[in-house]
Amino acid sequence: MMHSRLDWIRHWPVLAQAAGYCVVALAAQCCVSTRQLQRFIRERMASSPHHWLRRMRMEQAVSLLRQQTPRKQIAVALGYRSAAHFARDFKSFHGLTTGQFLSQTAPDPPADVAFRQ
Fold it and tell me: Is it the case that residue 112 has pLDDT exceeding 60?
């Protein structure tokens, strides 16, 4: 297997965020053509660059949501045009609104805490 300069990159999520989750910007950041990046991501990550970048973006969104970051701030941090655009993309990806996602993934209370009436 032939090695590419892309094989040496270890901080893909950081690069994806710095590129604004844009394939063209990510390729430029890596000093390769868009086509080279497409082939590399398809071979190594079994995904198209667009889908892989969207997954990276959604992982970052989940992380920020769990840190209780306001949705408007998340939208700005992840390069969305608006909070509504972020909300639509999140629901399209996860099948749930941000609120539904958080309520379904909220940690259970500790088992040693007695329920009081």
Answer: no
